[in-house]
Amino acid sequence: MPLPVNRRPVRRLTYSSVLLALALLLSYVESLVPLPLALPGVKLGLPNVAIMLACLHVGRAAGAAVSFLRVLLVALLFGSAASFLFAFFGALLAYTVLWLLGRSPRLGRVGLSVACAAAHGVGQILAGVLLYGIAVVFYLPFLLLAALPFGAICGALLYACERLLPPLRLL
Fold first, then answer.
1. Whole-model pTM?
2. Are 162 and 109 in contact (CB under 8 A)?
3. Angle at CA 98, nearest 5°, toward 83 and 52?
4. Which fold has domain 8-164?
5. Which of 31, 95, 136, 160 is 20 to 30 Å from 48 by CA-CA measure?
6. Residue 147: CB atoms within 10 Å
7. Torsion of Cα atoms, 74 then 69 then 11 then 22, to 10°
8. End-to-end CA distance of the chain, in Å?
9. What does the alpha-carbon distance between residue 60 and residue 9 come to, in Å, rounded to a whole number?
10. Residue 3: CA atoms inside 13 Å, Cβ hemisphere, count?
11. Which pLDDT value is given to residue 6?
12. Nearest Cα residue to 25 out of 59, 73, 86
């Protein structure tokens, strides 16, 4: 006779693990894609689609775990201490915005993604101020401008993923 088991925690862990693996894969793919912009630190943000899926469909704690494990693992595998600091501050602010606005019915997926991308840029500037001084603040308008198209692309991808995936009954 099988024991009754609540499989919900196992499903959350499994789905979170798959999303972390996807975020790591997308981070690697993103590093291979050259952007026509000559702006350092500007990327497409593809891993953020997996992070937003984790937060919105698995739970806020799972989304935070996926986000910060991705930052740590990418820094260990492909980066440096400085890249970790930039990514950590960016992820911290972006995830805070995602946590605060993620359940807002007024904000669509594209708007949410653009807001998170802008917050990520602000976080990167804060890390830059810590490392290099106040002079890096001049770079903020460029990061915010880049957040518009790249955040919109990630938001559209998030929307498409949500439409294609079957409804998850994890929360």
1. 0.87
2. yes
3. 80
4. Arp2/3 complex 21 kDa subunit ARPC3 (1.10.1760)
5. 136
6. 24
7. -20
8. 28
9. 14
10. 3
11. 61
12. 73
Judged by average pLDDT, the poorest of 24-38, 62-76, 109-123 is 24-38
Domain ranges of the chain: 8-164
Confidence grade of residue 35 (pLDDT, cut at 50, 70, 90): confident
User: What pLDDT was estimated at residue 5?
Assistant: 54
The token duo for 28 is 């690697």
Q: How many CA atoms lie within 13 A of 41 on its CB side?
A: 26
What CA–CA distance (Å, rounded) separates 27 from 62? 18
Structural tokens at position 26: 């997308």
Q: What is the CA radius of gyration of the chain?
A: 17
Residue 99 structure tokens? 């946590």
Q: Cα 88 to the chain's mean position, in Å?
A: 11
Q: Looking up tokens 């609540």, which residue turns up? A: 6
| CA gap 153, 139 in Å, rounded | 22
